[in-house]
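tool_log.txt
---
The assistant was asked to compare two proteins side by side. It first ran the structure predictor on the initial sequence, then on the second. Raw inputs and outputs are pasted verbatim so the downstream comparison step can read them without reformatting.
(1)
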Amino acid sequence: MNNFEYYNPTKVIFGKDIYDQIPTKIKSATAGNRIMITYGGGSIKNNGVYDAVMKSLSDYEVVEFSGIEANPEYDTLMKAVEQIKDNPVDFVLAIGGGSVIDGTKFIVSAAKYDGNPWDVLTMKKGCKFEYAVPFGTVLTLPATGSEMNSGAVISNSRLKEKRTMGGVQGFPKFSFLDPTVVKTLPQKQIANGIVDAYMHTLEQYMTYPSDNLLQERIAEGILSTLIEIGPKVMADPGDYKAASNLMWCATMALNGTLRAGVAYDWSTHMIGHELTALHGIDHARTLAIIAPNLFTMKFENKKAKLIQYGQRIFGLEGSCGEEAIHRTKTFFESLGIKTKLSDYTDDYQSTSETIRKRFEDRGWEGIGERKDLTPKEAEKIVEMSI
């Protein structure tokens, strides 16, 4: 088992009829009375979440910042940063899915940063976020696990870039998870959430067999659960048993538990982020496009784990690695997720070369669990995905 340090301070409040507890949780995080709520396009005003949260905040001075995009935009978020710097708040409450929560992590961190926040996102030497306005979340879309981790992904459409950030300041103080919101979601978002959680798990599992037997089984438990309940949630989003298991799987997939003591590989995400930046494709769908071909490209690296995965998750026998990749692709497609780049854009001719050049420019000689997936291989994986 690899050495590891595990830390997660986020308190989770899970279940039905829980929003009346929000004031108590805020009071445990700040003595202040001025709250900013952040959200996206306004769906929370149609599904009842906004009204329920605002009712719970009746004793607070509340300011709002809306319009955070599905891929949170740097320029949009900077407006909220300036708003907080001009008129400070004591606490920020993000109401939404992973994009709103990611965007809020940037807002609360950048509001406490004196330099240029873009320097932090581009990993300029010596630049990092260390402090943040305290914040919490009300989750409305199970997918990214952002409600219980410290990471975030921020887009800059002007530059056609998508960058990551992290740091302990990015952990929410608390997160409210009410599975009944799943019944209000469009089918597309539910499918995306299932694939996102599945791929977050695979990226911390599909490497090579480890000595951390518990983490292996936890990951396999999440994968098996998603395969079992995914079709049920798609068929009936109001199925509380299925929806609650989806929500908890998505949270557990990326709250730091799975990575403890094991190797992990975020290559699929790194390539997928470029597809979103270049073509605006939903994050989960970029993962479904890239993963099967990345597993094929790095088959020898991942062969032992692919066989274990095929046997334990799909009940296959023998040397079943290639069939396991096929079964994974078939599962994504069963949810209505298309798995080719050409299904999403006609403008893909230079995509693979552009991604290779970006990786080279960033000095990424090798990525993945063995640090041997080269920019040239990334280019080939994208070509295989067209």
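(2)
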Amino acid sequence: MTSGDHKYLPYGRQFLDEDDIQAVSDVLRGDWLTTGPTVAAFEDKFRTVAGSNHVVSCSSGTAALHMAYMALGLCPGDRVIVPSISFIATANGALYCGADVLFTDVDPDSGMMRAQDVLDLIDGLTPDELASVVAITPVNLAGEVAEIEAINSIARQNGWKMIIDSCHAVGSRYGDGRGVSRTAGDCHFADMEVFSFHPVKTIAMGEGGAVTTNDAALYDKLCLLRNHGMERNPDKWTGRGAGKAQPWYYEMQHLGYNYRQSDIHSALGLSQLKKLPAFIEKRQKLVAKYDALLTDMSPHIRPITSAPGHGAVRHLYVVLIDFGALGTTREDFVAALSARNIGTQVHYIPIYAHPYYRDKYGELSRPGAEEYYARTLSLPLHVSLTEDDVTYVIEQIADVL
């Protein structure tokens, strides 16, 4: 088989089987399509996966971020610290609330915010700017886990709240400073964590997201915010229906949104969660295959750094490529792989470089983020991929170069 005859390998895609299709069909034949018992069942199952006390599912990872920021009460004049490398929603969610963001630099070899990056940022802030910071949002990029324990320590010292963007990290594990194995989503070092179930993520719901928390008050607030800010519990009414038996009554207590998850999406998500252990095993095998085959190409092509002892579940397989040393450009390299039916993507353009943020905050540059962006490329990684496919990808990379 020639390279042009090989099936197309996208950088990511969902894996669905007949069990998933049947689960959705069962809901379509039932009484509930919107937010019903299957949503509750998905939240209960995901709570055990994440290890948190509470889960609030919603319509997307972006909605989860927005809800988390709203639950903190962000408003104009507040600032949130975010990494320069992430999907734009990490920063956008704070701006939806009228707040501003401050961009830290990142590790040029992992793309993630480090504790030192946070310290470097705040060293350059004026007293008024520092006083306006109310929260920080590190990102577990590609399924790897950031220095969340050390970053949390800085946050607590400064009185900040902490949200972890774990949209890439469903099922990932990490070790804390005491050697305890923890799960992304357990909120041991955060007030809230957010997740995405977009089709290219570890599990797919079509579109979907969730917020985990151990704080009962935040949980109650999140539940209101995803459903127009409406309270239906008579014990919590404060308006004209308080103390009355009015079965039709509800009251809007916050400005919320329609960010509800549906039973249709939750049926797919619940079925996918049953496969999560198998998905994790497959992804880790594929990552190990990539790592082994790339050894001979180092240092010009190598995977992003992975913290020792972490049990990352990689959503993306990201490599760092010294295009200059290899005598090519990323544009030409991507085009050459595409001609061989290999899909790639860049995760991510520094958020501050987008025209909207450039116009809002002026020209910014973070050396680590710029170095990471200049070298990064995501290769195919998804459950439908085989180890032979990984071999093909690496063989074609070697041939192109």
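---
observation on (2): The mean pLDDT is 96. The longest helix spans residues 276-294.
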